[in-house]
Specification:
By secondary structure, this protein is mostly beta strands. Helix content is 0%, strand content 52%. It is built from no helices and 11 strands. The strands form 2 sheets. Strands 2, 4, 5, 6, 9, 10 and 11 form a 7-stranded mixed beta sheet that branches. Strands 1-3-8-7 form a 4-stranded antiparallel beta sheet, with no helix packed on it. Strand 4 and strand 5 form a beta hairpin.
Length: 119
Amino acid sequence: QVQLVESGGGLVQTGGSLRLSCTVSKRPFSSYAMAWFRKVPGKERETIADITWNGHITYFTGSVNRFNISRDSAKNTVGLQIDSLRPEDTAIYFCAHRSSRGSYEYDYWGQGTQVTVSS
């Protein structure tokens, strides 16, 4: 059973930085990419960035300047660096796994890690 576990969330002041990490256990042979999302209560889930295991990155609207996704294929981990944090970045951050090569469809999800930014 593929499992994704996020870590690195917490409480941070406005302007601070956080680095989130996602570890994939039992990574399948078909594994192609990983992504980070976030969810604010009452709002739709937002895609932040997607990265293939060979390093191709896609950033989604509004996330290019302050977010930096990375991966360590040998350790089966994906990171998300978030800089210049703002109160509106407060959310649960999730990582997800993608086997599909032709579309951004995700087949496994982590439980999420809470990020809270104080003003």
